[in-house]
Structures are given as structure tokens and as C-alpha cells.
Amino acid sequence: MVHRLVVSYGQPDDPAAFDAYYRDTHTPLAVQMPGLVRLTTGKPQSMDPSHPAPYLVAQLDFDSEEAMGAAFASDEGKATARDVPKFASGGAVMTHYEVNEVHVSR
């Protein structure tokens, strides 16, 4: 099983500064968290213009919810969490869940 943390970042005041900070400072902190299996990011586009999409979405995968909790309790996890207010001027919403995979056969 994979346990996934999803971080949805709101529109930043300065998108270029956000992008540079996220790439050069925040990502190197995040990838040091123990137990992190995968980190993916993307800039979503809304299918419904009346509901704006987040500016950036990050997905962090762990082997279990317990592994995710241990990662955020670690020094590296605490440093990563403390870093978010330094660049996320548009806010950040975090959710997590157990990933259930549906296999598609064609």
C-alpha cells in the first residue's frame, strides 16, 4: 500500500519567486525526509473555469500512514514544514490518504 500526502498551493504573490524557491530550496529539504518513496509535482489546469485550480500540487508518497507520520516527526520533516510559510504566500492545503489502485485492462 502507498500512503499519499497531497499539498495544494494557492496562487502565490510572485509566481517566479515561488517556482525558484520551491525548486532550489523547498524540494531539496523535502526529499531528505526519511521514508519518502516518491515526490511528484505539477501545475494543474481546471476543467471548470468557475473553480480555479491550485497553482501547484505536490504528491509525497510513503509506504504507510505511520511512515508519513514518522517522516514529519523527524528533524527533516519539521524543517520542511517550517519552510512552507517562507514561500507559500497563496497558502497550502494538505490532505492525505491510502492509495487504492484500480487496474484497467484493455
Automatic annotation (TrEMBL):
Report the Pfam families cross-referenced here: EthD
Coiled coil region boundaries: none
The family database entries (InterPro entries) matched by this protein are listed as: Dimeric_a/b-barrel, EthD_dom
Boundaries of every EthD domain copy: 14-89
A molecular function (GO) held by this record is: oxidoreductase activity
NCBIfam families in the record:
EthD family reductase
Q: What is this protein called?
A: EthD domain-containing protein
What is the originating organism of this protein?
Geodermatophilus aquaeductus
